[in-house]
């Protein structure tokens, strides 16, 4: 089991970029596959991207995730933020090497960090 804490959320202008961090304690995060999810008000939580335990990076459109093994973190970079992006962003971890965009495999979740997009 690993404890996760997200940080880096805040207010960003449309078109801007943001880097979120998922910090782990209790275990090494490179032993886990990590998924990033987000939930906007009134909407279901949705998957963004996942990074396998055997991968150092993952990229999907405007989203890029990478590991910092020394800091025991995984970061999520979001480029060109749009009006659809405001949400609470979560990271989650699972010990399977498979990279899943489904919530069910993930047993450990952070509390989330709020991202707001406004000019």
Written description of the protein model:
- The chain is mainly beta and 119 residues long.
- The protein is 0% helix and 50% strand.
- It is built from no helices and eleven strands.
- The protein has strands at 3-7, 10-12, 18-25, 33-39, 46-51, 57-60, 63-68, 73-78, 87-94, 108-109, 113-117.
- Strands 2, 4, 5, 9, 10 and 11 form a six-stranded mixed sheet that branches. It has a five-stranded antiparallel sheet with strand order 1-3-8-7-6, with no helix packed on it.
- β7 and β8 form a beta hairpin.
- The chain is globular and about 40 Å long.
- The chain starts with a strand and ends with a strand.
- The mean pLDDT is 96.
Low-confidence blocks of residues: none
End-to-end CA span: 40 Å
Beta-sheet strand percentage? over 45%
Query: Number of DSSP strands?
Result: 11
Structural class: mainly beta
**Succession of helices and strands:** EEEEEEEEEEE
Give me the Rg, rounded.
13 Å
Helical residue percent? under 10%
Largest sheet: 6 strands, mixed
Query: If helices are DSSP runs of H or I spanning 4 or more residues, what is the number of helices?
Result: 0
The pLDDT mean sits at: 96
Instruction: Indicate the overall shape.
Output: globular
């Amino acid at each position: 089991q690993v404890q996760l804490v997200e940080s880096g959320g805040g207010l960003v202008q449309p078109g801007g970029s943001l880097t979120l961090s998922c910090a782990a304690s209790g275990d090494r995060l490179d032993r886990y596959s990590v998924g990033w999810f987000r939930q906007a008000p009134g909407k279901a939580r949705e998957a963004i991207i996942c990074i396998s335990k055997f991968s150092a990076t993952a990229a999907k459109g405007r989203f890029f995730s990478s590991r910092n093994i020394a800091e025991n973190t995984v970061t999520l970079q979001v480029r060109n933020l749009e009006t659809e992006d405001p949400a609470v962003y979560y990271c989650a971890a699972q010990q399977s090497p498979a990279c899943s965009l489904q919530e069910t495999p993930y047993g450990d979740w952070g509390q989330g960090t709020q991202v707001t997009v406004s000019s």
